[in-house]
Amino acid sequence: MDLVVVLVLCLSCWLLLSLWKQSSGKGKLPPGPTPLPFIGNILQLDVKNLSKSLSNLSKAYGPVFTLYFGMKPTVVLYGYEAVKEALIDLGEEFSARGSFPLAEKVNKGHGILFTNGNKWKEIRRFSLMTLRTLGMGKSDLESRVQEEACHLVEALRKTKALPYDPTFVLGCASCNVICSIIFQNRFDYTDQTLIGFLKIFNENLKILSSPWIQIYNSFPALLDHLPGSHNTILKNSVFINNYILEKIKEHQESLEVNNPRDFIDYFLMKMGQEKDNDQLKFTYENLVTSASDLFGAGTETTSTTLRYSLLLLLKHPEVTAKVQEEIERVIGRCQSPCMQDRSRMPYMNAVLHEIQRYIDLIPNSLPHAVTRDIKFRNYVIPKGTNVLVSLTSVLHDEQEFPNPEVFDPAHFLDDNGNFKKSDYFMPFSAGKRICLGEGLARMELFLFLTTILQKFTLKSLVDPKDIDTTPIASGFSHVPPPYQLCFIPI
């Protein structure tokens, strides 16, 4: 009986300590729902659709509020004004990467996506400069994307207009573009290595978008040694990193400092220049993880957007018909689409923007954190506090985009049919942590989709009104439902 009393007292003390830790300093943070000891607000959230929960909470607590994932507070930014004020007006103060325990376990403090401080700044600056040197936004990389678009068209022709799931072939195209930048090689669409990569990227995206990962990231110490899909992510990352290591060894043997070929070559050269630096940031570990960051992000986000694009075009044949009419008028049937065409194609440009706005691919961005104690809207956010940015609240703003839940390219067209820019268009996030490959992604989306619509009529297997575009997962990313269509050559 005495043992039971001791256990009850210990448990009571632990619960009181948890409550004290959660409430200490809470008066400085924005308001929010009262957290429970240890588990925080997790039971008050729909982990299958966090965006919906954030929308409901913003109505009660305003555009800036606090949630507890486990025992750690997270400040939520909801709506364009709050997001702009933080990420753009106070960009430096909100530029740290917030806690993402699973990614931290995978990356171990290396790479581009999940590092902080001077290491992150130097590696990001180097990576951006190298991508530009390798042609991001220039004609030489454009020609590589055009070439890959031709391979994509040939693969689609081989389907012989039969029902076909485009997931794999779209992944091949986007993966080959980023491979040409990192490794200076592309894979045939039947290559087993490529097939293995795409299976891994697809699997990782589905796992990261599952409720389990939200729970894992809230209680990593408790769940770390238990079975679960987080272990699959770790196993997959080892496979990718081992492949990259093999490629690095090959590059070391064939490196010509006067003729760098790709991202790995440029990084190896930088390592040689910095070898006497006491605060070495360009290391093998950072090379492997940076290449892995670019490889995974550059493949899956673009291919998923392309997959969602075709689904929306099937759902809205009237939009597809107008795009194809513009392609016929501006480019014709024989000439390959190029980036210069985009400025003469306001409707296609509007459709691409509306696709990205509507699908809201990464609804809550990657977590941010503040770099110092900062006063924000009469609150004080302590240094290191996680910040969750609701991109959904910006991309689906009712004032900027009337009927935001409706797919409508007119959201990006003026009364004269000209393309209309919007400051609310933030699918790549904003500020210091904006997506590194935004320029490449925009190029791929335009050239791949324009080429497909130039060469094929898209035929749905069901009545367009019966097509459901609701994502099958809404965690880290919105994952489109599986579907098939027929690519009928024009």
Automatic annotation (TrEMBL):
Its cofactor is heme. The keyword Membrane applies. GO terms for molecular function: arachidonate epoxygenase activity; caffeine oxidase activity; estrogen 16-alpha-hydroxylase activity; heme binding; iron ion binding; retinoic acid 4-hydroxylase activity. It comes from the Eukaryota. Heme binds at C435. One of its GO terms (biological process) is estrogen metabolic process. Coiled coil: none annotated. GO terms for cellular component: endoplasmic reticulum membrane; plasma membrane. Keywords: Endoplasmic reticulum, Heme, Iron, Membrane, Metal-binding, Microsome, Monooxygenase, Oxidoreductase, Signal. Belongs to the cytochrome P450 family. This is unspecific monooxygenase. It comes from Neovison vison (American mink). The lineage of its organism: Eukaryota, Metazoa, Chordata, Craniata, Vertebrata.
